[in-house]
Design a protein that fits this description.
By secondary structure, this protein is mostly beta strands. The protein has 2 helices and 16 strands. The radius of gyration is 27 Å and the shape is flat.
Length: 250
Amino acid sequence: MKNKFLLGAFALLSVFTMSMTSCSDDDKPVESSIEINNAKFGHDGEATIGSDMHLEANIITNAKIKLIEVEMTKADGTQVLTKKYDTGKYVGVLAATFHEHIDIPSTFAEGNYKVFLKVTDMENKQKVVSGDVKLIIKTAKVSVDILDKATHKPITSAKAGDKVIVKATVASLDAAKPVTEMELEFHGSGEWEVELEEAVLAKYIGKSNFTFEEEITVPAKAAKGKCHFHYTVEVEGHKNTAEIEDFEIK
């Protein structure tokens, strides 16, 4: 009888101890954390002076976003540009896709710069990621549309493998300086380049003023979801990009 009593007491003590341990674990505060993934600075690491710089990143935090800051410095560390986002769609949420175009003044010099993206949460924890951006001079005017193959009207979505029409206008700022390279790309959770035949490229490379209008195939590997379409030409060693935002791969 005495042994049974002792066993029962030990059992109750074990349950009580486990209960207290569980409560103690539940009472421990969860430390805030910030993740910044897939950060992209500029178009292929470049931005045009007098235009804007593309910035994008996926941000996740368990304490909600309080502030996002962008800073650009010269190679020697001198700060040349800052921008804060402390109100609006990025603030007070646990996750956000940060996507902005930061104006680059025409007074900036060509060269390599460092860009910092800093995220602060509601508990004042911070996380910073950085990337290199080369500021270049615009050497061509470029615009682009994606058109329906049958109607030739602009569209905002297509399926991987679909045939669509890309129509772009290109004008070198110096008519004596022709286009030397051309690139078409869908850019979302990955980067999917559009393959152009040599015969197609030959129609435009070497010209300084033209309208590009060709049927392309949306890359078969393009993932479903929102993406950007980039049409880029190179003139005088500088890339000039026209972009379609929020194009959807269905």
